[in-house]
Amino acid sequence: MNAHLIAALDLANRTVPVLPLRVGKVPFGNCRACRDNACGGRPNMKTPGPCECPRPCHAWAAATTDPRVLTGPAWALSWKQAAAVAYHPGGVGLTVVDLDHADAVAWARRSLPATRTVPTTRGEHWIYQGAMSSANDVLDGVDIKSTMVYARWLGPGTGTMATLPDTVRALVVKKPSPVRPVTAPVPAGGGECCHRTPTYLERGITMAEQRITGATSGVHATVYRTFLAVLSAHGRCGCLTDAHAARLFAVAQTKGESPRHCADAWSNARTALGM
After folding, report:
1. To the nearest 10°, the Cα dihedral for 250, 175, 140, 17?
2. Strands 142-145 and 151-152
3. What's the pTM?
4. What is the pLDDT of residues 28-57, one digit of tens each?
5. DSSP 159
6. Which phi and psi (to 5°) does residue 153 adopt?
7. Of the N and C termini of the chain, which has fewer Cβ atoms inside 10 Å?
8. 199 vs 65, 195, 206, 226, CA distance in Å?
């Protein structure tokens, strides 16, 4: 039994999910049925839990605490060729702040609470108690490894493990796209406005803004349907202006939509209405 498998079994005995890595810190292919995401790529789609193919699967989804899998025939050759052991931090309720160079380490020492640290080839791993979403390049030289990723096992490290701070969680919070001025193509008026008062249009635009703002899921679809409704009601007369369209684009961007998507949704709605 080689040293990597011995280390993996020791970690598994402590309920840490582990897997072998080949040269280059790359996981083994393992399950032939899942090569090239033939199984649907469930882990890559970031859905909870591993692929449902016969275990062991691929990447972080292969991590296991089952000694029968670790010592079984599916991984016999992998352990012979293994260059390192990896583990799934999120699977044991941990988050690794991977600091790739000296400047990143200096930032962590200034900005984060002290915790257990592990030296790496170029920097350090800072390990916190608590799981979160993972993300790469949240800052220069800083990756967050927790759920649905793997991290190399480089030893237990030193220091007392601290609770995952909000400072780290905030690094992966998606910020809404900045609101940019836009000029939306507004249909030319086809004649005298059929609406009785300007209040009717204002009420319609306000309701459209509220509909987009209130979307909790399916924002793309909500934006398109809202644009479609506004253009259907107001797009063929002379009352809808660039200023009204810009208001709708702005509120869509505060929900995370890009200016490009806003323009595409507006154009698609016009096409659907034959404008």
Report:
1. -150
2. unpaired
3. 0.60
4. 765 655 555 555 444 443 443 455 555 556
5. S
6. -85, 115
7. N
8. 65, 9, 10, 19
**Which tokens is 182 given?**
């836009």
The total of other beta-carbon atoms located within 10 Å of residue 140's CB is 10
Q: Report residue 248 as tokens.
A: 């709708």
Tokens of 158: 């030193």
Peptide bond just before 50 cis, omega within 30 deg:
no
Asked if pLDDT for residue 172 goes beyond 70, the answer is yes
Rounded CA-CA distance 98/182 in Å is 39
Beta bridge partners of 20: 85
The pLDDT of residue 42: 45
Tens of pLDDT, residues 71-123: 988 788 889 999 999 999 998 999 999 999 999 999 999 999 999 999 999 99
Contact 114, 182 (CB under 8 A): no
* pLDDT tens, residue by residue, 215-242: 877 788 888 888 888 888 887 776 778 8
What mean pLDDT, rounded, does the chain reach?
A: 82
For 67, phi and psi rounded to 5 degrees? -65, -25
Residues near 91 by beta carbon (within 8 Å), at least 6 away in sequence: 16, 17, 60, 63, 147
Joined together, the tokens standing for residue 265 give 């949704």
Cα–Cα distances in angstroms (integers) from residue 172 to residues 81, 128, 144, 146, 219, in the given order: 35, 15, 8, 12, 20
Q: Is 3 left (phi over 0), alpha (psi -120 to 50) or beta?
A: alpha
